[in-house]
Request: fold
Amino acid sequence: MIRIQNLNQQYGGTRILWDLNLDITEGACTCIMGRNGVGKTTLLKCLMGLLPASSGSIEYNGRELTKVSAEQRAPSGIGYVPQGRDIFPMLTVEENLRLGLLARKDNAKDIPEKIFELFPVLNDMLHRRGGDLSGGQQQQLAIGRALVLDPKVLILDEPNEGIQPNIVKQIGDVIVKLNQEEGLTVVLVEQKLGFARRVGQEFRLMEKGRIVASDPMANLSDDLIRQHLAV
Ligand SMILES: Nc1ncnc2c1ncn2[C@@H]1O[C@H](COP(=O)(O)OP(=O)(O)OP(=O)(O)O)[C@@H](O)[C@H]1O
Reply:
């Protein structure tokens, strides 16, 4: 579904991604894992067109994305929940969710009911400002906003960072439901091993700007963890 080949990226003179190759299987939940600073967020930003690739190709369903503007990538079916959530604090929950409608191709006018079934708290807080929500609720709002788009693939960058355990559990339940019951393709940058094992079917390990191991989650061995994840 997504095929990245020989992707290179640099900030100024510092090269971050090095001839990176990555395949994402349709219908799977794939966890991209690796220590801090290996380039996971940079990889997702390149995928979303928020950072330019220096060279290489990113194919989505056979279409070359590096030539597609960032604004066009969401309507093509890619939902993105950035690290740090990025909701609009002065807008209400409803207004934040409505922003997701703008990226839909079908001019839908209403927020899908499903969003409130997945995250009932968003309905309870519909008219509150985004900035008044707790960190966990803001994360649910950010995921809800990406889902308003009705994406074919949902990309999440460390959705559980700094979030209380009961909301981490709820977010995990939603990811499992969307992926396993509804067949949504999920790409998840995740540092928490337990969470990755619970929701993911595939892993990709990153080290110094490259993918160094790719396999089904069941094959994530203690050896690989020691080599590429332990600090
Ligand atoms: N705007 C920037 N300008 C220059 N260097 C940057 C910038 N953003 C990130 N970097 C550097 O790029 C490298 C990769 O960062 P990136 O955020 O992609 O890693 P990461 O694996 O997502 O890490 P983390 O888990 O800490 O978020 C790091 O060395 C970081 O310092």
